[in-house]
Amino acid sequence: MKIRLTHILPPLVVCLILSLIPLMPEEVTLLPSAANPELPLDYDLSGWHGTKTQESEKERTILSADTRFSKAIYKYVNPISYELEEPAINVSFVYSGRDLNESIHRPERCLPAQGHLDLNGRNEKITLSDGQELTFRRLSSRSLIDNKPGNHIYHIHYYVFVGSDFICSSHLVRTAKDIWDRITIGRVQRWAYIQIGTYWGEQIGISEQRAENHLRSLIRDLVPGQIDWNAIKN
Q1: How far is the CA of 15 from the CAs of 9, 23, 158, 182, 184, in angstroms?
Q2: 34-to-27, 107, 193, 195, 232 alpha-carbon distances in Å
Q3: pLDDT given for residue 14 in this prediction
Q4: 27: exposed, middle or buried (C-beta count within 10 Å: 0-12, 13-18, 19+)?
Q5: Residue 17 located in a structural domain
Q6: Does residue 40 have a cis bond before it (omega within 30 degrees)?
Q7: What b/e sequence results for 34-72 when a residue is b if at least 16 CB atoms lie within 10 Å of its CB, and e otherwise?
Q8: Phi-psi region for residue 165, left (φ > 0), alpha (ψ -120 to 50) or beta?
Q9: Is residue 75 included in any domain, yes or no?
Q10: Does residue 144 belong to any structural domain of this protein?
């Protein structure tokens, strides 16, 4: 019988990981994320108005007790009328604790559980206002309004993970990095899962392009001041 590599590779990987367990340090150090949890509020961020919001009771219940949240809603300030324009943009920083699996969940799984349909994702590079180029994962979806068939609102989310010295937009890369650091050097990074999202739809009078422009504009203005770039090594 011919043995395929795909049949024996998974058991070999498991055996390798198990063989490294005795070499793992008995104590691990929890390092802070390079992402600043203090979001600018009111008119502190030029061109935007930020309002602090709280995590939901469900989030506090599902995620581990040492998970930290920092959330706010931003609206663009019209430079002529100084009125606050729609759409509102939701910004969420979720900081993992010692157990990464109990602190951060993959959005591709969480959003469908919250009723989001037709989830699509792709990587997008955005040049920030300080000149840094950062790769985000962009997700688009739709959801029903008042559970009425045919009555939809559309969503756009950008997310990225920021560790103590490493940034990525891939759940698998972040997990691999975390496991490697724990096994080899006894280090645990407190990852910040940064999600910035908004909505659009004809029924609410907001075009996709307008929502996308507002979203990217906030990302360009907000993110540079929230990351300690001197700590990032990749």
Answers
A1: 10, 14, 36, 17, 16
A2: 22, 21, 11, 16, 7
A3: 53
A4: exposed
A5: no
A6: no
A7: bbbeebbeeeebeebbbeeeeeeeeeeeebeeebbbbbb
A8: alpha
A9: yes
A10: yes
Q: What domain count does the chain have?
A: 1
The range of the structural domain enclosing residue 86 comes to 28-231
Q: Tokens 């590779």 correspond to what residue?
A: 9
CA distance 30 to 84: 40
Instruction: Grade residue 3 by pLDDT with cuts at 50, 70 and 90.
Output: low
Give whole-number Cα distances, 109 to 18, 65, 112, 115, 120, in Å: 28, 21, 6, 11, 12
Cα–Cα distances (Å) from 177 to 27, 91, 141, 166, 196, in that order, read 18, 25, 29, 9, 23
pLDDT at 12: 61
Two structure tokens written together for 232: 């990032």
Give the mean model confidence (pLDDT) for residues 53-80: 89
Look at residue 175 and tell me if it is in a domain: yes
Dihedral of the alpha carbons of 85, 90, 91, 93, in degrees to the nearest 10: 170
Cα–Cα dist 142/112, whole Å = 10
Name the residue with tokens 């080899």.
Answer: 184
Q: pLDDT tens digits for 91-102?
A: 999 998 877 667
Tokens, residue 140? 């688009």
Q: What are phi and psi of 184, to 5 degrees?
A: -85, -40
CA pair distance 54, 56, nearest whole angstrom: 6
